[in-house]
Design brief:
heterodimer, A: six-stranded mixed sheet, 22% strand, B: Rossmann fold, elongated
Chain lengths: 297, 570
């Protein structure tokens, strides 16, 4: 019997409990990667220095010794656990789901939980932030296993609603994270572009590493609507009446341009931009991102 | 004011609303969709609006509606009249009832067609409109204005008879200038087949009407009337191997088609279709020969035919039917009138019998080597002088034989040229041509160095214009060849070649010769101008539609690709 490599979204949606769902994702993730995806997150290699008496022998690079016949010790920039902040947009637009079994928020939550599970597995400290026009819930980073339960409780208790203000949110997050950390932000980016970029700039100013998961529903990507329709905004109740099929091409083209612009502008700030479609298995999405990251490093 | 000839088509006018309704249906919101990225939609919509603004959409819609509306309105054939109460009219209706009008085309005689057209004109009369009907062949002295609506052949259509359209026009102009027409729009409507004297009346006379008045010539010939003429227009001898060659030039009018020219001895040459072609024969002995054009000569539209005189042609000014053509040609500069005694080369002289009787000049012309054709004027017998009398056949009896009589007019193998029957006419007259049944149609005699031919057929009916047709020229050419021989032809041709080749007067350019005239083949539709023809309506509608689509296409091309918008909901 052949098992699917990744658990598809439909199956995942049928699983009750975010914790179990996260574990399923992680299992799929390991099946796809075959080795720990988070090596290098918690400790970052800095430089070699000559061995000095008293240094821990475990830090001696024996390969370097084999090549040079000298003892070198690897130095790491951060030897403490990583502070991994998982930030979820819980504005009303994240509650959208067209044909996908998971809403954008549920999908982002599943991915966040999976990442938290992984990070905690290697004793990194994981924090959680949900936000709309500002931070709604903030769980400071902890590395204990029990912390995962708290993480899940907060996440499961969150209901999407209201508007988004990414600048206010990200600026507040930058203030709340005094030490350098890794921010994984799940949002659909429906905000003013300038404020979005300002927010990320604020995070980067504090030397935080940032990964942006741009979460979109398939209907947002493909705009499959036909005929005349009134499109009502989930956050602002703004209404636009139009002939959908005549708009499709322009819309898809505009969205592609928008994503392209984000990728370029965020990439220029050393921010990983990862577009996410909620119909794709989360593990596959994570694998795709981690592989890309590995290729870059 | 606007009225419609086919008002029922106006029921289709609501169709013009179809594009608008389609637009409404398309725009009607059927569903409400909760959507996260409405701001992006708004941005795209605004960009589209900039590329294709609302007024542009409305313009497209308006053009489409207008296209359908124009099509429907033109189907209804609108007629436009000046706003307010139009001034009453005074219309002189002239109906040509010359014999040629009895010619039946498409099951209807030209005269019946003319009467029908005139009735249609009278049917458009308003209560104040005056009218009078003149017949070219009838007494016009008592003509007086009456109600146009009641004008018409109250006493029935008079029998066909020779008359003068020119005189009728003079009467019409006089009526138009009478006090009764004060304050009215004067119109003279002529219903004619535009042949013979009618043409002459148009071209050869100048008329003027009060300002705003107009002439309208309704050409009542059926559209099916053949428009093809062919004539042998030149004949010359050329050196050729083994003797003398003959070159025959064939000229065609209308739609040229291949013509076979057959020389004596059965030699045939194909002349390809073209306005002018030649057939060259070699080994044909000089002397009498016969040429045939099996394609035949339709008794055709004289106005589309040029006079191709192979030699100097003079016109008699006698008042016989068909003389108008000659006089028209004179007016157009196609031929010139010379006094018979001035003729230095052989010519064809057509004279009525009465003139021949008393014209010493005509006789002198013949004596100098020309051909004189005596045309009977209708009496049962035509005096040929010197006691000779020539029976004139009635048109009906002679029609079949006459049509087949002349070798250049019909490929009639039964025509007996030169089959003189001595004893039927006193010498020196002899029968020059007779039908196979033995009925003589042409008598001839030498007259000095020339010859005289007498036709035993009165002008009238459909043959009234025979003398004006290219067939007659061919016939005369044939006779001339017999009469004076090739040398004479060569000499005559030099005269012809000295003539210029002016533009012939045709129906198509008649208005240029007679600026007041409007020539039409359409049935009259009253005093108001009728709507544009359907083709024009269709063209207008198609133009509007194409304009709409072209504007749309041009806009799409110039708009260029979209750029990524920046969603915002500040």
């Amino acid at each position: 019997m052949v098992f699917p490599k990744f658990i598809d979204v439909v199956t995942l949606a049928a699983v009750q409990g975010l914790g179990l769902r996260a574990r399923l994702v992680v299992e799929g993730l390991f099946a796809g990667l075959h080795r720990s995806p988070f090596k290098g997150f918690s400790v970052e290699f800095s430089e070699y220095r000559p061995y000095q008496p008293g240094d821990d022998l475990r830090l001696v690079d024996w390969r370097a010794f084999a090549r040079t016949d000298r003892y070198y010790v690897k130095e790491f920039e951060e030897e403490t656990n990583l502070r991994f902040y998982l930030c979820l947009d819980c504005s009303a637009s994240m509650s959208f789901s067209s044909e996908a079994p998971l809403t954008k928020f549920e999908y982002a939550g599943t991915m966040a939980a999976a990442l938290a599970y992984l990070a905690l597995g290697q004793r990194d400290a994981v924090g959680l932030a949900t936000f709309g026009t500002g931070i709604r819930e903030f769980v400071p980073p902890r590395s204990s296993r029990q912390h995962f339960r708290t993480f899940l409780q907060v996440l499961e208790g969150t209901r999407p609603g209201g508007r988004t203000d990414l600048y206010a949110t990200l600026a507040a997050l930058a203030e709340r994270a005094p030490r350098r950390g890794l921010f994984a932000i799940f949002t659909d980016l429906w905000d003013v572009r300038a404020r979005i970029l300002d927010g990320f700039r604020a995070l980067r100013a504090e030397k935080h590493e940032v990964i942006l998961f741009h979460v979109l529903d398939a209907a947002e990507e493909e705009f499959p609507y036909r005929g005349a329709a009134a499109f009502v905004d989930l956050e602002s109740d703004e209404k636009v009446e139009l002939e959908a099929s005549r708009f499709r091409e322009s819309y898809v083209e505009a969205l592609a341009g928008l994503k392209r612009d984000f990728e370029l502008e965020l990439g220029a700030r050393d921010i990983d931009y990862m577009p996410v479609i909620t119909t794709r298995p989360p593990a596959e999405t994570l694998i795709s991102y981690l592989n890309r990251r590995r290729a870059l490093t | 004011m606007i009225s419609f000839l086919q008002p029922l088509y106006l029921l289709l006018l609501p169709l013009a609303a179809v594009p608008w309704l389609l637009n409404l249906i398309k725009r009607r919101v059927r569903v409400r969709v909760l959507f996260p990225s409405v701001q992006l939609l708004r941005t795209v919509e605004e960009r589209r609006a900039r590329r294709r603004p609302r007024w542009y959409e409305l313009l497209l819609l308006a053009l489409r509606v207008a296209a359908i509306a124009v099509l429907v309105l033109m189907l209804a054939q609108p007629r436009f009249t000046p706003s307010g109460s139009p001034p009453p009219r005074a219309v002189v209706v002239i109906i040509d009832n010359s014999p040629s009008m009895e010619y039946v085309e498409g099951g209807e005689s030209r005269l019946a067609r003319a009467v029908r057209f005139a009735s249609a004109l009278a049917a458009t009369a308003g209560p104040e409109d005056l009218g009078v009907v003149l017949w070219t062949g009838s007494e016009r002295a008592g003509a007086a204005w009456g109600k146009l609506a009641e004008a018409g052949p109250a006493g029935g259509v008079p029998p066909a008879e020779e008359g003068s359209l020119a005189e009728a026009l003079v009467t019409a102009v006089a009526l138009a200038a009478s006090p009764e027409t004060a304050g009215r729009t004067v119109e003279i409507a002529v219903f004619t087949d535009m042949q013979g004297a009618a043409f002459e009346a148009v071209v050869g006379n100048g008329f003027s009407l009060p300002a705003g008045g107009r002439f309208t010539f309704y050409d009542v010939r059926a559209d099916s009337t053949p428009r093809w003429n062919v004539a042998l227009t030149a004949y010359r001898l050329v050196p050729a191997a083994g003797g003398t060659g003959v070159v025959v030039e064939v000229r065609q009018y209308g739609r040229p088609r291949p013509v076979t020219v057959t020389a004596a001895g059965g030699l045939a040459r194909e002349v390809p279709a073209g306005a002018r072609g030649e057939a060259k024969f070699e080994g044909v002995a000089a002397g009498p020969a016969r040429f045939e054009c099996p394609g035949g000569y339709p008794f055709d539209d004289v106005l589309t035919a040029e006079l191709p005189p192979p030699m100097g042609v003079t016109a008699a000014v006698g008042d016989f039917a068909g003389a108008g053509m000659w006089r028209a040609a004179l007016a157009a500069g196609q031929i010139r009138v010379v006094a018979p005694e001035e003729l230095s080369a052989p010519a064809i002289l057509v004279v009525p019998a009465a003139e021949w009787e008393g014209s010493a000049a005509a006789r002198a012309t013949a004596e100098r080597g020309s051909i004189v054709v005596i045309v009977p004027e209708g009496p049962a017998e035509m005096p040929l002088g010197e006691g000779a009398r020539w029976p004139v056949y009635s048109p009906g009896a002679a029609r079949a034989s006459f049509a087949a009589a002349f070798p250049l007019a019909r490929a009639a193998g039964d025509f007996d040229v030169g089959g003189a029957r001595a004893g039927e006419l006193p010498a020196p007259w002899e029968i020059a041509a007779a039908t196979a049944e033995g009925r003589p149609v042409v008598a001839s005699r030498r007259w000095g160095r020339g010859e005289v031919y007498a036709l035993a057929l009165p002008p009238g009916r459909e043959y009234s214009n025979f003398y004006t047709s290219p067939a007659f020229v061919g016939f005369a050419f044939d006779l001339k060849f017999r009469a004076i021989g090739p040398e004479g032809v060569a000499g005559a041709r030099s005269v012809a070649s000295a003539e210029s080749d002016p533009e012939p007067v045709r129906r198509e350019n008649l208005e240029a010769h007679f600026p007041n005239a409007v020539v039409t083949r359409h049935e009259p539709r009253g005093k108001s101008r009728s709507g544009a023809p359907l083709s024009a309506a269709a063209a207008a509608a198609v133009f509007l539609l194409l304009a709409a689509e072209a504007v749309a296409a041009a806009k799409a091309v110039t708009a260029g690709p979209a750029r990524a918008p920046s969603p915002g909901r500040s």
